[in-house]
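Batch manifest line 416
LIGAND: flavin-adenine dinucleotide
JOB: complex structure
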Amino acid sequence: MSVPATERVTAVVIGAGHAGLAASHFLTAKSVDHVVLERGEVANSWRRERWDSLRLLTPNWQSRLPGLRYEGPDPDGYMTVPEVTEFIERFAKVSRAPVRTGEDVSSVRRDGDGYRVTTGRGEIACRVVVIATGACNRPTVPALADAVPASVRQLTPFGYREPAGLPDGGVLVVGASATGVQLAAEIQRSGRPVTLATGEHVRLPRTYRGRDVLWWMDAAGVWDQRYDEIDDLTRARRLPSPQLVGVPGTTLDLNALSALGVELVGRLAAVRDGRALFSGGLRNVFSLADLKMNRLLGTFDDWARTSGGDAEVGTAERYEPTRAPETARLQLDLRDGRIATIVWATGFRPDYQWLDVPVVDAKGQLIHEGGVVGGPGLYALGLPVLRRRKSTFIYGIEDDAREVIDHLVKYLGMRN
Ligand SMILES: Cc1cc2nc3c(=O)[nH]c(=O)nc-3n(C[C@H](O)[C@H](O)[C@H](O)COP(=O)(O)OP(=O)(O)OC[C@H]3O[C@@H](n4cnc5c(N)ncnc54)[C@H](O)[C@@H]3O)c2cc1C
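JOB STATUS: finished
ARTIFACT:
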């Protein structure tokens, strides 16, 4: 026999980051009664899970949410974490989102033709659920971390705040996406010699032909490319974040890191007998990233030519290929004291342990079609390439949320 629910609403949104708040904005616009349940505070991930020096890698003019945009004096600058937090808090206020903080959802399960949502404070019965709990709930750490000698301290970006929090000595940063390159640079600058293990990565210049590279992504329509137009969607959804940092005019690619003194090595393949073993073929990895970057720049050039925008921007540029070390190190003794810390910048993953509906695949990813999840009346927002390439970015949520909530409203209409 089912326990009577303490409360009944039409829609429950889980998560009060920008994605959940955008869902709330459109639910309100469509007069759908709802609550937004948040285990911590509004913008919780930005408050608790980011390092001190982080700035958005998207420029301020791209900090845009439904009904709210950046209006400060520096549209081409990049927000600090407190600024992002404040921006999202403002969005919650302006859109009068019915947020309940401190409500940790421990279960969502099917109940009749709707769902039953359990939090520490009770149960809510609802018709539809929007999952906006984020794509980056947990850092991904490879299983080989278990073989790292106990003398080496291991950290993820969630535990890292600033270089001063690390012991003195060398640091092995594993992963060369946005997080890895940013942490490698600041740790190296702090006087701790960094070795950076580099697998597949996405190289981008900060500015191209005088404009922010993300301006080009937007103008050339790359970010608007829809999920159902992408040939290899699974791959697109797994793509690492680009090597970018939110410092005006600063390109933080591997050449820039080499110039700082960071040692580049291949992908960390194994830890055996206290030794870190790296893949060879660094040159190939670098060439592939250079090739893909040049292909993308070619797309931008084509767009500038065909749209007649050539005269508005600088001349086409190409960059020095990524410099591979003469002989890349293939192994590193983790017991000899040179490496004091390993920072796992190996990506993030979502966490759906609370979801008692069979809509998560063997890799822990939600099964959905453009945010419409397999369970009827279950929706998602804020996942990589959910409906467009820009889906996980603040800038990308408006179009996705509008469409997903439109679908949800039609679903409710059909049920009525
Ligand atoms: C290091 C890093 C840098 C980034 N930089 C940029 C950038 O420069 N520009 C940009 O546009 N995007 C950036 N992003 C991507 C994206 O904007 C952020 O990940 C953003 O936080 C995602 O928003 P969200 O609302 O989807 O998820 P989140 O902000 O993660 O919000 C999800 C919310 O759900 C809550 N929650 C989770 N589980 C539960 C539960 N069971 N019960 C109740 N509440 C729950 C969490 O507490 C959280 O508040 C970055 C991401 C990372 C990780």
